[in-house]
Every structure is written in structure tokens, then in C-alpha cells.
Amino acid sequence: MNKNLKLVVIGGGSSYTPELIEGVIKKRKELPITELILVDVIDGEEKVKINYELVKRMFKKENIDINFSYSLDRKKALENADFVLTQFRVGGFKSRILDEEIPLKYGFVGQETTGAGGFAKALRTIPVILDICKDIEEVAKDAWLINFTNPAGIITEAIHKYSNVKAIGVCNVPINMRYDVANQLDLPIEKIRAQFVGLNHLSFISKVFVDGKNVIDKILYQNNENSENIVKNIEKIDDVDKINQYLGLISSPYLQYFFFPQKMINKELDNIKSGKGTRGTQVAAIEKKLFEKYKDINLDVKPKELEERGGARYSEIAINVIDSIYNNKNKEFVVNTINNGTFAELPDNVSIETNCIISNEGARPINSGKFPKSVTSLIQQVKTYEEYTIEAAVNGDRKKAYLALFNNPLINNKEKIEELLNEIIVKNKKYLQNFLD
Amino acid sequence: MNKNLKLVVIGGGSSYTPELIEGVIKKRKELPITELILVDVIDGEEKVKINYELVKRMFKKENIDINFSYSLDRKKALENADFVLTQFRVGGFKSRILDEEIPLKYGFVGQETTGAGGFAKALRTIPVILDICKDIEEVAKDAWLINFTNPAGIITEAIHKYSNVKAIGVCNVPINMRYDVANQLDLPIEKIRAQFVGLNHLSFISKVFVDGKNVIDKILYQNNENSENIVKNIEKIDDVDKINQYLGLISSPYLQYFFFPQKMINKELDNIKSGKGTRGTQVAAIEKKLFEKYKDINLDVKPKELEERGGARYSEIAINVIDSIYNNKNKEFVVNTINNGTFAELPDNVSIETNCIISNEGARPINSGKFPKSVTSLIQQVKTYEEYTIEAAVNGDRKKAYLALFNNPLINNKEKIEELLNEIIVKNKKYLQNFLD
Amino acid sequence: MNKNLKLVVIGGGSSYTPELIEGVIKKRKELPITELILVDVIDGEEKVKINYELVKRMFKKENIDINFSYSLDRKKALENADFVLTQFRVGGFKSRILDEEIPLKYGFVGQETTGAGGFAKALRTIPVILDICKDIEEVAKDAWLINFTNPAGIITEAIHKYSNVKAIGVCNVPINMRYDVANQLDLPIEKIRAQFVGLNHLSFISKVFVDGKNVIDKILYQNNENSENIVKNIEKIDDVDKINQYLGLISSPYLQYFFFPQKMINKELDNIKSGKGTRGTQVAAIEKKLFEKYKDINLDVKPKELEERGGARYSEIAINVIDSIYNNKNKEFVVNTINNGTFAELPDNVSIETNCIISNEGARPINSGKFPKSVTSLIQQVKTYEEYTIEAAVNGDRKKAYLALFNNPLINNKEKIEELLNEIIVKNKKYLQNFLD
Amino acid sequence: MNKNLKLVVIGGGSSYTPELIEGVIKKRKELPITELILVDVIDGEEKVKINYELVKRMFKKENIDINFSYSLDRKKALENADFVLTQFRVGGFKSRILDEEIPLKYGFVGQETTGAGGFAKALRTIPVILDICKDIEEVAKDAWLINFTNPAGIITEAIHKYSNVKAIGVCNVPINMRYDVANQLDLPIEKIRAQFVGLNHLSFISKVFVDGKNVIDKILYQNNENSENIVKNIEKIDDVDKINQYLGLISSPYLQYFFFPQKMINKELDNIKSGKGTRGTQVAAIEKKLFEKYKDINLDVKPKELEERGGARYSEIAINVIDSIYNNKNKEFVVNTINNGTFAELPDNVSIETNCIISNEGARPINSGKFPKSVTSLIQQVKTYEEYTIEAAVNGDRKKAYLALFNNPLINNKEKIEELLNEIIVKNKKYLQNFLD
What we know:
The structure is a homotetramer. In chain A, strand 5 (144-147), helix 6 and strand 6 (166-169) form a beta-alpha-beta unit. The longest helix of chain A has 25 residues, at 115-139. The first copy, chain A, has a 6-stranded parallel beta sheet with strand order 3-2-1-4-5-6, with helices on both faces. In chain A, strands 7, 8, 9 and 10 form a 4-stranded antiparallel beta sheet that branches. Chain A is globular, with a radius of gyration of 21 Å. By secondary structure, chain A is of the alpha/beta class. The first copy, chain A, has helices at residues 17-26, 45-61, 74-78, 92-105, 115-139, 152-162, 173-185, 216-221, 239-247, 255-259, 261-273, 279-295, 314-326, 373-395, 398-406, 417-427; strands spanning 5-10, 33-39, 67-71, 83-86, 144-147, 166-169, 193-199, 202-210, 213-214, 250-251, 331-338, 351-359, 362-365.
């Protein structure tokens, strides 16, 4: 690899940026970054500027001398990049809140990454990510794209199907689930190998290895006092322990939407009724406060308050993946990559989330055999939803959009699909012009 | 085949029997039956006796001289049978009404063949049908079993997996769907070839051939004034036409439970509230009247009132299948048989409902390629439910029973499964002793 | 279908034509042909003229009044055809003899349809059949193409992959194998259902049904005095009976090339040494005599001498397939059609030879489960050879041609492939210009 | 893992033992072996004793204090073993020479691991390895079995199918092929990642990665002066370079038997005619000299002459695999393990040879997508041969033995199988009693 390691962060105005930079600083020996650019769109200029100033102070504190800048000219910024990190949100919190609220009106789960909300987010995001990929193909064709933007699995698949960019999709849920397992077993994280199977935000730990032995039953059946909410935005429902026992699997917190849709809907409705608002509303408020904090010219480290924001260990996984690629470390991470025969129950060209060896060749999935039968058809159904969603987004195809929602298990009363779809398109029309032509 | 064609009807006390006999009478030239026995259990003695007397009068009217009897000794009756028809209902209407009512308490569809109701029926029925098969293996090993008992797909699969009996599962829905297509196109039934794909009570017409051309779009998009309720017990919901257009398929009426679960639940609840009762309650009343009618010693034909009962063309399909086997006619029928590679998306050893060539070799499925992508994962999910159900029933295995319901798309709030399952077992304890040991 | 049934025979100058016409005459009630054209290329004009005169006399004898002609203008002749029969041979006997002789020089089987000879024939034939298909697409788009030209399986697949013409590939080997089984069991052909699995000239009878029971062991283990050479051009080698017993299958005579390559090569070499010449040389002589016979203005029936020619029952199968399509008879024939999931061990888009229902929809394969394990990899290997052959022929691609021969089990010393391939291309250069550009 | 690391070597009388011990000595820091037993059968006592004395001197030289012994009581020796290495040869060189000579009489390749010779070796070896596994299950159930005995792929599969022992099959060909690639590119071995696909002694390098880029074309098309014989016992035939170019793959030297069977047969025949004898004859002579050397009481290191013996880097791979398991290093090695869905073109329960992550969980294959199409059916065919061989060996089943040879591409004239098989059984009767009962 070249010596002048260049990193470009798209969505540089995100409130996560200080955490990412913290990671960059910690890893600076292994990752000798010489150029770093925060990129954002014009609407994000204010935020990216705040981040830029804070990061400058962080670098100064550590005596780090990097060619560091921010930019609104994405293509120019991408020139000869080695790594591109994408963490943008098309439409911002306003769109997120719509994603959470619209489905509720039809009796469905409203969530930013799954169900009809995640669907709307995918429709908005796919054209943008493919545009970014076109830029990368032109000005940084050897770059690795590390994507965090949700729905991360769908985005990874869209990139694979419609561009030549080398991409890995990253999510912080698997690492947090593995930490949770380690806590429950009272063991250091290094002692735990957790085998993940499934899709992004639809994954399961199928086996937990300690010293080469599968000890998942200890997790499933012991009293897990050390367990806690794995992701900030999804409160645990106790019934999930019982389900995990029946399945013989540890399910991602996002599975709760599929297991208990009505309970989850009720929680959401309660939050709205109580004035607390959707999770998006809450996070928007947190973020506002965060940026106030970031502006403080005396602040030169990542502020603790960022942890409330959710997305814990996001920087840890991102920087480690980059390190394992750049330094060809062949370390094992759970990421989103292309199936390519790893799971026989899914098509070859779709994205999966599973344990991979990360090296300068990218992500190579480790074979773990067949899906557990008890959740295979659920995974297949959600994948069908995802495939239709990508086709719909790329072509502005309402029929494919309908079939996407039709195949989503969270949309269980099919007579409401047309109206729901229509509202999604109308309310997102700024970003979904291809559906309106 | 031997010249002394012997037919045994298990569940001979069913109110359908006169229709079946009407079919036997019509086909007597091609099917030279010399012995016919109506078999029932002790609780069904009264009904089977009524049927016996009516059938005697029907035969007399037509000057038919057959060795005809009824029996409560199943194994003895089965000796050297050539064809065995099974049309029994374990637990009778009382159990059916429970199957319809229990799921409603948990917010789920209550229906006798699908969802949690069909599940309960399967648990009761599988041990009985396997007992019958054991008898057949012992005393009539070359006999063909033509099964009508619901859930017909699950029953066919259980027979295949746990016995050596040659069996074909028959349902009247496909033939009625084909008639409906013929009516809509104003063509005689012979001009229509409808390609069916899927499972029993989860089937779709994927193509409609007239003169070698696929004309399904005519059905999907024309104003179908001639269309009517295909099955008596499921009133059509208009939204299904729109869905069929999106899918490019004509869906079985039973798909409405999967498309509009809440609407279907509401209808069921309305019927109960209004005092009309569940469909089972209504049919029990109809049947009571029917048997009053059957007792009339002047009646010597199938009474017209039987048509209200549902199950139209049941005799047509049953007798034609027997005819095509006995006379090796190689005619095409839509029946339930073992997949054996017909649909690559399902395991080899499961039952499917599709177009088959029926001959003295049994049912050979005609290849029709892959499932339509838009409904593949739905079919896979229901099949997973069916496989777990069979394992649960055979072994009295609560975990498998749980996983069956977990995989049933009509059971969408998983936290209720344990309680629901418990109530099913307790209320059916007479028939589910193997779950209680 | 239209009332004016038009049949076009491409390769009308073939010596088989009188047999085909005999079939047309016999079936004239079911197949009311109003127009018939024999088409050939300019080099075949003499022969097609002789056939034309003979057929005129045959029609006259039977008082048949058809619009009958011959033509060298293929596209014009094809206009509005309902059925097109292709029975041509690119390069004539001269090429066939080369196909038989060239491989022998390298130590390989020399045969016109299999091995390197069949490969050369495929390279010459595919561009021509695709040209014919282009004509059909333009001037007779609803026509059915019934192809006899060898290698019939490869040709059927090439048509499917590179045109939209509705085609069925027909071969007389399966029907002759079924007659042979009937003779051995001393039963009329109608009593026998033989299940075929595999590819053209690489097929096996996996089961023989009589009265619904599989009696293949009777054939495999009884003393088969009634058996005879199934195809004129392949003398039976006794060892094949032993192999069939081990496999539990009845193998096509063409399998002898795969089972006993050295013995078959020795036979071929003996024929050449003895002055008898290859089979092609012999048939060329027979054909010469046949056409002398055909010229006899007193001849007005198919001459008996034609039977020596090989190709028995060719007309029977061709005319019956046309009849079953035209009259939508849904009869079962063994033909070459597209796999489309019938055999899971092969790709979907390749040709297979198996039992199909023939109707106005074309050929629908009947499911018969998995290939017998003992011959699965042989079938897969030959199919790989076939797929590469088609790619090579269409694109004039030497690498694909190499890989075709590399995957052919009859080419077992791979160091000779390049030289062999070069000689094939040079000697066939008139027909393989696309390899030389 | 326990602190008292115990290693048992079955076939301890092998001439390879000093190399293995050399490896043990080099790795002693990472692998703290406390007990080491060389096991052999009574016929091998003399050799194992010689080895025992030599190894004692080697340990003494290095001041290594291990509980070291030799034993003829296998089961006792295995008690509580942590690692078991199997490197025995049933029947010794006498049998090997028969394996090489018998097939030649029928016109087939005679080789100890592939073709009919490898088949005979498998028949002799499988019952013995399964006996060993029974012992391990009883007295050392947590032990890892590292198998070198050929045919290593078949042996690995037999262990998986018929025992519960945790086993990894190891071969020195892949590591030598990778070294060869490194030499050709003039790069250190660590810079090369070579992706292997296929089976033991039937493997291919599909991609060669340097700095994350696939550079296989450099190997395929450059003038490879640095290349040399990868395995001692197979002299390179130049034509293989041309074939590799067409395939786009680097093929294992053992593929030469499949590519050039006649040339390989001729070489073997020449060796016999010239008095040099088969490879087995030559190696037997080398070994005799080696043991003379080993007896030298002044020898206390591995003698250089061992390298002539073949089997280079055998100790390197064996000891490294043990190290990666024991120390959970998650290093990547090419080993034989169970497919379990890694290659969709093969059954789940068969052995493959491919890149795996080796840890305390054993070998986890890394997904590398589909087999290259050009060699898929060859691999499938050999696997079918292997599956039948195992069934034949376990059950003494002649029919399965026949079908094994029938499916072996090196047995191309099938009429000779029965006689060949008979001679194999008769000449090996001491070890194949189960075929004679």
C-alpha cells in the first residue's frame, strides 16, 4: 500500500466524528494517516465545521500533524483516497422521524433501519451511495469503502450489485453482543469467539466458543445479571430469553421487532403520547446538546456525553477493520459482505452479516454450515424484502417497492401497503424523484 | 389390478358420503367396484348407519349390486382393500370449534386448517392417520390411500415420512379455482390448464393456458363479473385482486388469512359476537339438518342441501383420481404429493400441491420451474411450520410444537406462543396424550 | 391453431424424407397438412429434387392433395410455417467421415455425434441452426421447431440460449430402447413405461414400469434372447449387460463409447483397415444406392432398403410429437428440452433428454427425482463439455473449444487437445470461419 | 488445554519420524510436550526401535527432558493423548508396490494414492484408521487426530462419517505448491496467499494474492525458471503449463495423472522395464539406507538424506497445525476437512482440501465461492469415486467397490474393472477379509 495513507469521511458532520477521531488517534502507530478530509453536503456545513474545529484541537493536543481539512466538494475530496468512511444520513433527523412515525399510522413498527421505516431510509440512501461509488470509481478506484450508513446490509448489497467499489459494511451490534456474552461469562472479550449468522440487524449468535468448546447453553440458561441493553435504542423485552432458549440462539436486539411487533409498536406509541417522541426525536435533542458542547473551544477530547447517543464501539470496529486491511492482519470480525455461497439458503449475490477474515483482500467469510432451521425462513423472507428494496430504489419502481413491503414480515396486513407506500413516496419526494417521474 | 375392486371409506359417517357415492355411481363403468365398506369409530356409529341406509337406497335406485356394508372394525374392513379414502375428523365439530376459537383469544386467526387451529388439528390427526397406515401396511399393502382429511398437505407428508403407504392428498380448492378461471373466461373447463404451485391451502395459479398461450393477465386485469366465492367458507375480500396483480398470480382463497389477518380475525369475531358462531358452529348446524334429511327413507339421491356444506366437487376429484390410477389414464390433476426435487426451494421429502400426472404409478409432478420469487419465502416459511408440526405430533415434542408456531406467519406476536400452545394441549388432551406423558 | 397447417422440412434432400412422408400420410386424419415444403441448400438440390418427385408419386398413390413443393429459398419457404422439421447435415458425408477419422489419429473415439467428432459437427451446425431460428423469428414466430439434426441435445440448448424459437429436440434412440424392453418382456409397447434420465446420446432407463410396478430387474438379470441392436450403427458389446447390472440402469447404446473407448476405437480402426471404411463411408454408399432407387419412376412408397440406413422409427416419433402438440394430446414422449430445474444436478438453462408431456404448450418434463448417483458425475461432465461447445461455436472461441474437449471424458490424454482442435478447425474451415478471423 | 501435553505418533516406525521430531524440537517453546509415544505394530517393531534410539539421541543433544517411549500397545499408548499423529502404511512397501504394479497390467495408472492403486490403499487403510478412532473415542475422546496417512482426503472423510473423533487431514503438497509460487515470484513465502480449491491430491490454486491483488497470471504466463518439481515422486510434464493457462489455474502435480494418463503409464512402464522399479521400489531402497544411517549411534540430528525420500515440509505443516490448535493462533493453512457447505458443488459430508482457519475449534474453511467451472465435474467425479470407496471399505461391499472404480476417471475402459477388482482383493486378502467373508 502507498505510504501516504488518505482517509475521507463522508458525513463528516455527524456527531459520531469525535469518536472516530479518537480511534484514529489511538491507532496512529499502525495507521499512519497523512491526509484526512471530512466531507459533507451544504446542509451539513455548520456541523462539519464544528467537528473540524474540535478535531483540530484534538490533534493539537496529541501533537499530531496530519493534512486535515473539511470539504463540500465530495469528488475532489475523494481523489486518491485509500479509505472512505460513509456515515451520512440522507434527509437528516427530519426524515428519520418520518420513518419512525409514518408506519405507526398503519399499525406497523416504525423504526429507522427495519420494517417500513428502514425501507424508506433505503430508498433515500441507495441512490446517494451509488453516486458516491461512481465518484470513487473515477477518482479513487483502489479505495476501500467502509460503510456505516444504515440499513448497512442493504447498502452493502446495492454497492456490490451496481458498482465495482470494494466495500465492507460495518455495524456495532455484533461487537456489542459479543461484549455482552463476555460480560455474562465474566471473561475477557478475547476469550470469546461468537459465531454470527444472518443479516444486518437480523443476526443471531449460533455458537459461543470458549477454549474451543461451544458454551452457548451457559448464556441461554444461566441467570444473566451482567447482561444489559446491547444497543441504546432498543430496550430489552424479557420474553426474548425464552425465545432464545427455544431457538438455541442468541438473537440480535433488532429481532425484538420481529418477535414482538405489537409490544414494540405500543412502546413507540407510548413514547409519542407521553411527549418523549420517537427515538429520532430524542436523539435529535441529544445531538443538539452535543454540538453545543463540541463548540466549546476548551474541549479537545471526545466528550463523555457522546456515549448516550448510541452507536457505542462504532469507532472501535471501524478503525480495527481499516487496520486489518491496511496491515493485512487477517483478524476475524463480523461484517457485512457478499454471500458468494457462504450460506446455501441465500442467493450468491446478496449481503450477509457473519464472521470474516479481514485482510488486504477484503472480507473473506468463514464457513459455518447451514443456517439454523428455526430461523432460516425468517432470514430468507427479510432477504427477499431487501432484494426488492434495492431494485425499487435503483429503478424508482413502485411494483418492486410494493413487493418489498409485501415480503417484509413486519407488514402483516397487506391491504395497507399501497397507501403506506404512497405516503412514504410523497413525504420523501425530495429524495425519491425517480418514483415520481 | 385385480378384478374385485374394493373401496374402503374411513370416516364413512361424514355428511359428504352421499356425494362420494354419487361419484361412485356415475363412474361405475370405469370403476367396477365389487366391495364397499364405510368405516367409522364408535362415536360416529349413528351417522355412519344413517349414511349406510341412504346409500343402500341410492344403490337400489340405480340397480347396483355391490357387496356393501359398514363397520367399526377398521383393520378388518381394510383387508385387501384396493383404495382407501380417508375423510375423518378427529374430535368432530367440538374440536373444530375449539380450533377456531382458541387462537382468537390470543389475537390470531382461528381457522380449522391453517394457523394455530390447523396446527391443533394436525396434532390430533397425525397419530390417527399413521395408525391407519400401520393397518394398511399389514392387511392391504398394495392399496392406494386417497386422503381428504385436513390439513391435507401435512397429512400427506406425515404419511410419506413415517409409513410405506402409497398416498395421494386431495383437496377441492384447485379444481374450484380452475372452474372459476373457466367461468371468468367463459370457456369450458377442458380448455383451461391452470399451473398450480405451492402447498395445500397455500397455492397459487402461476399460469393459465388456453390453446397453449398463457392468458393469466386476462384474469388478473379484466372485470371478473363471473367470479364468485371459490370456497364456501371464505368470503372474498376485494383487496386480493390488487395483490394478485402485483404478484402476477391467482392466489388461493386461503391466502387471505396471510394477506389480511386482522380483517379475517375481525370477521371471525363479528360472527361470534353476532351469535352466528364460527364457521364450525354454522356447519355443525347444517350437518345436523343434513342428517335429518338423510334419514328420510324416501330419499334415494344426494340431497341438494349438501352443497351448502362446502366441499363442492370433492367427489369429482376423488373419483377421478381413483379412475386415473385404476385405469392408468395418465390424466393431469392438482394433488398433494412429495416434492422429490420438483421445487428446488423446498426439501425433497416434503409435500407440495401441484399439477401431477396420475397413473397406476401414482402421482408424478410435472416440472414447472422455480417458484415465483414474490411468494417463495412465504411458502418456505409455511413449509417450515409444517415440518415442525409433523415432528411435534409424532413425538409429542413441545419444543418442536413451539418452533412450528414460531414459524407460522399467522402467529406474529411470539410472546404468546407458550400460553397458546399450553391451552391447545390442555383442551385437546384426549387426543394429545403423547404431549402429557 | 390455424386450419391451414403448414409444414416445412429443412434438409428435405435427406434420404430419410420418404419415411417422414410415410408418417405424414398415415397421420393425415389427425394432422390436416395443407402445405408442405422440402427445403435444402444449393448443394443438395439434386437430392431434394429426387425426393420431391418420389413424394409426389407417394401422395398421388394415396390421392392426397397437398400444396407441395421444394425450395432453395429457406426464408421464403418458412413464411407462416406451423411446424419446421430440421434434419440437415452441414458438410454432408464428407464432413461426417472427417469427424469419424480425425479423432482416431489422436487415439480418440471417432463418432459423428459424440466425442471429438460430435464436437466438430456441433461447431459446424450451431451457427446454421441459429440462422434458421433467426428466419423463423422473423417470418414464422409462432412455429414449433422439431429438430433431428445431431447432436440433438446440444442443438436444442443452443436454440434455447440464443433464440426465442419454441423448439423440441427429438431422437429415435429412446423409443427404440423402449421397444427393446417391450420385446424382452414380450409385451406390447403400450404396456411399458420407461423412465429416461440424462442427456441426448447419454441417457439411461432408470425404471421400467409395467402395471405400475418397476420391473427393471427382469431386464437386467434375465436372459435377453429377444434383445437386438437398438441402433444400427452401434454393435452391442456384451460387457454392457454386466455394467447395467452394477448401475441398476439400462444404458443407451451410445454409452458404449464411454464404457469401452478402446474397444470402440479398435472396431473403428478395424473397419478402416479392412477397407469397409467408417460408418459414414458405409452409409454414404447405402445412401447412394437409395437415391438410385428413389429415382425409379415406378416407386411410389418408402422403399424397404431405407431401413438399413439406421434411424428407425424416426418418422414415428417426429409425427407423433407434432400430433401431440397440434391436437394438444398431452401424451408422454422422451424428448430433448430445457432442464429448468427438472434435474437439480444440472444448471437450469441446459438441455436434458427425459420423459415429457407434449401438448400445445410444448414439452413439460415429468419430475423423476435425482439422477442415479452412479452416473451423475458422468452426466455432469458431458454437460459441461456441451456448454463449452455451444459457447465456442457461437463465438468462434478457441479457449472455450479447448475447455469443451478438456471436459469430454472421451478425450483422456489432454496433451493432444491443441493439435486435435487445430486440425478440426483447419479441415472444417469452410464452416468455421468465425474461428479463423 | 491441559498443561501436560501428550503426543502419540501412530506409525512411529516411519522413516519420517526424525523430521517430525526435528519439528517438535524447534517448536518446543510454543508446544510444551511432556509425553511422547511412538506406536507401531509388531511388524514395525524393529524400525520403531531404531527411531526410538535416534530420537533419544536427538533429545539428549538438545537437553530435552520428555517422558518419551515407544509402544506396540496402541490403545494403552493413546490414553489421555492430546494429539494423535497417524502416519502408518498398512501392508508396508510390499503393498505399495502391488498398488503400483497391478493397475498397470490392465492399462491403468499405478500410483499409491490415486487411481486403482490409491483405491486399494484406501480399502486397506480405512478399517485400520476406524479402529484407531474407536480407541481414541474410548481413551482420549478430546484428542485431536492429525492424519498424514494417504489417501488423506478419503481417510478424513471416513473418520467424519464413521466416528466422532476430531480430525484434520494434512498433506505437504499445498505448502510446497505455495513455496513454488513464492520462488517463481521471488518473494518470501509470507507475502503469498494462495487460494486452494478441490480435494486432496486433486487440488488447484485458483488465485495467488500478493498485497491483496490476484497475480496468478504472472505465474501462468511468465517464464518460470525458478520452478522445480513440487513433489519428489512426480516429474513435471511440460504440457501442464499450457493446460494451466487454459484453466486459469495452477494444478497440483497429481493432476498430471488425470491430464496425461498414457504418458504417466509409459513412464511407469519404462521404470519397470529399465530395472529401476516403481517409485515404491525406489523408496523402499532409500528407506533401507536411511534406517542403516539411523542406527548410527553417533547420529543425533535428522540426516540430510531424508530429503530424498519425498515428503518435504511434512513436519513443518504438522507441527504448525498442532501449534495453531493448541495455542489458538487462528492461522490459515490448507488442510483436509469436511465440506459442510463450503463448496456448493459437493455434498455437505465429504472431505475437501482448502484454506482453513486453524484454532482450538479445529479447521474452519474460508469461503472462496464456486469451483472454477472448467474443473468442477472432474472434482465431482473423483469425489463420487471417493464416496463409493469409503462405503466399499467399511462394508466390504464389492458392488460399491465396482462403482468406485467405475467413477474413477483413470479407469477408462470399464470392461476391465471386475478382473482388476478381483486381483486387488485377492492380492490384498490379508487386509481385506471383509470382502472375502
